[in-house]
From TrEMBL, chain A:
Source organism of this protein record: Microbacterium aquilitoris
Keyword Cell cycle tagged: no
InterPro entries the record matches: AAA+_ATPase, ABC_transporter-like_ATP-bd, ABC_transporter-like_CS, Metal_Ion_Import_ABC, P-loop_NTPase
ATP-binding among keywords: yes
Every ABC transporter domain range: 9-242
Source taxon at top rank: Bacteria
Protein name from the UniProt record: Metal ABC transporter ATP-binding protein
Automatic annotation (TrEMBL), chain B:
Designated name of the protein: Metal ABC transporter permease
Assigned protein family: Belongs to the ABC-3 integral membrane protein family.
Keyword Transmembrane helix: yes
Pfam families from the UniProt entry: ABC-3
Length: 270, 299
């Protein structure tokens, strides 16, 4: 991975406006290889849109995004691994676990769907890497949410991406599966990839995350977890009293207003 | 009607079956390739949750065919025009599933009403009238049959060429878009192919019964298989067996083809459902046994 001179992700002067409302502006973010950045903030603060803009699926209102030193120009990028926010697949989905992984390997390819040995070997590698050998041949519909999410990680890693974008990858997973999915993401980051991960709960990632991008109230704060997750910083960001409490080795954020309520304060604090 | 009449209607042609078969040979071919295409495209119809759209397209296809009959134009062309209009409207106005269903619900009765109006105005051979609604492949003229076979072949080839991106887009549209699959184009292409397949099916099985060849075989296959190769292959096989079997049984008597096709395809579905449910119970029990110990160790 040392052959790459440019950072996996570089965002400059980015702004996002939707429906006449400014969600954020002046965002500069450079993500280095091996770095894990968590994106936090209330719903409706444009976190998912940020990920989609990096993928070229949505346009920023201002600013530029470079992935691997190349300006994002077209929709979709196979150099980026993406875990979209999803619901579990319906029970009767005609798909086995390994087929979900295989979509990442050859799902984009036009032409007659003739099976290739190289594809099958890659799928087997990915399945082994995510520890899914036991359930890869079962229908995905009967697999648990955690098993499905691990398979999706396998799909996202198909091309060994230098940048991994995850949108709420831990939602509705139990603790063991949260740890398993975080472990897979962390391992890929250790191999030299950058990770940008949208989440509403930082706790499963504490100790792994390098920096936090906290978006709220039309503004954002970027920094190390201990510098961002404090009562002072979040109170300033939200423009309302917010408390960060320590409960054992967990953090609890109390009093953060939701996106709509905070909007009214926007003009006063922006 | 007594039993002799029924027996005659069903099996009256058996003594001269060989001669009948020679006459309907092209119909059998048309049925076979539509069964194949219908089974394959049905897999995507189910993945994209578009069974209702198939029905909506078929009613407008019927209206198009009826209009063609009225003005003396080619009926196959008419049904294709109707199909394309419906597919384009549904694709354009109903990208989201909920919008789509209401648009189809609005279009369908309008299409069916138009078709009935055109048929009422039409003075020609009355046998043509209801064949568009309930199908009568054996009365389709041979040059039209050639067209139906050619269109089905085009749909088959196009479907195979976009197979994997279409599958990705159907199962996981967000990831597909993120990996550069042109999802808008894929959806449009699929609607057009679906429209063509429906137009062909209207002539073979009738506008009201199109689902029996475009949905039932794939639904049956999905009950007993899960693999990316097994499901389409089984669906295609079920489609061919239903269409060809229906035609071969029907020409032994004087009854229409469609009830044979719909019955065969329904029976296949029933069998698959029973087999699938039985197997599903076993797998779920396995899964329960498998996950329990892991959970308790970690908890």
């Amino acid at each position: 991975m040392t052959r790459h001179a440019s950072p996996p992700l570089e965002i400059r002067g980015a702004a996002l406006r939707r429906g006449g409302r400014e969600l954020w502006s002046g965002l500069d973010l450079t993500v280095e290889p091996g770095e894990l950045i968590a994106v936090l903030g209330p719903s409706g603060s444009g976190k998912t849109t940020l990920l989609r803009a990096i993928l070229g699926l949505e346009d920023l209102s201002e600013g530029t995004v470079e992935v691997d030193g190349k300006r994002v120009a077209r929709a979709g990028n196979r150099g980026i691994g993406y875990l979209p926010q999803t619901r579990p697949l319906p029970r009767d989905t005609a798909l086995r676990g390994r087929d979900l992984v295989a979509l990442g390997v050859n799902g984009h390819r036009f032409g007659p769907p003739i099976p290739r040995r190289r594809d099958r070997e890659r799928v087997d590698e990915l399945i082994a890497a995510i520890g899914a050998t036991d359930f890869a041949d079962r229908p995905v519909g009967i697999l648990s949410g955690g098993e499905q999410q691990r398979l999706r990680v396998g799909q996202a890693l198909a091309d060994d991406p230098r940048l991994l974008l995850c949108d709420e990858p831990l939602t509705s997973l139990d603790l063991a599966n949260q740890q398993a999915v975080v472990g897979l993401i962390d391992r890929h980051r250790r191999s030299g990839a950058a990770v940008l991960l949208v989440t509403h709960d930082i706790n499963p990632l504490l100790g792994k995350v390098d920096r936090i991008l906290y978006i709220a109230n039309g503004r954002f704060t970027l920094g190390a977890p201990k510098d961002v997750l404090t009562s002072e910083v979040l109170t300033d960001l939200y423009g309302a009293p917010v408390f960060v409490l320590e409960a054992g080795d967990r953090l609890v954020v109390v009093g953060a207003p939701d996106a709509e309520a905070s909007h009214h304060h926007h003009e006063d604090h922006a | 009607m007594n039993w002799d009449d029924i027996a005659n209607a069903m099996f009256g042609g058996v003594p001269v079956y060989g001669q009948i078969l020679a006459l309907v040979q092209n119909s059998v071919w048309a049925g076979a390739i539509l069964g194949l295409v219908g089974g394959l495209i049905g897999v995507f119809v189910l993945q994209r949750d578009m069974a209702f759209a198939v029905h909506g397209i078929s009613e407008l296809s019927f209206a198009g065919a009826a209009a063609a009959l009225l003005i003396g134009a080619d009926v196959v062309t008419g049904s294709i025009v109707g199909s394309m209009v419906a597919a384009a409207l549904i694709g354009w106005l109903g990208s989201r599933a909920r919008d789509r269903n209401s648009i189809i619900g609005v279009l369908m009765p309008f299409g069916l009403g138009l078709g009935i109006l055109f048929l009422a105005l039409y003075n020609g051979r009355s046998a043509n009238r209801f064949s568009l609604l309930t199908g009568q492949i054996v009365s389709v003229q041979s040059d039209q049959l050639t067209w139906l076979i050619a269109i089905s072949a085009v749909v088959l080839v196009a479907l195979l060429l976009i197979w994997r991106p279409l599958r990705f887009d159907s199962l996981d549209p967000q990831s597909a878009a993120a990996r550069g699959v042109p999802t808008g184009l894929i959806s449009l292409a699929f609607m057009l192919l679906l429209g063509l397949a429906v137009a062909v099916a209207v002539h073979i099985i009738g506008a009201l019964l199109v689902l029996a060849l475009l949905v039932t075989p794939a639904a049956a296959a999905a009950r007993i298989a899960h693999g990316p190769v097994a499901v389409p292959l089984l669906a295609a096989l079920f489609g061919v067996v239903s269409a060809v079997g229906g035609i071969l049984l029907a020409v032994a008597g004087t009854l229409p083809v469609s009830p044979y096709i719909t019955t065969i395809s329904f029976v296949i579905y029933l069998v698959c459902r029973v087999v699938g449910d039985r197997r599903g119970r076993v797998e779920r029990t396995d899964a329960a046994h498998r996950t329990q110990p892991v959970a308790s160790v970690r908890a």
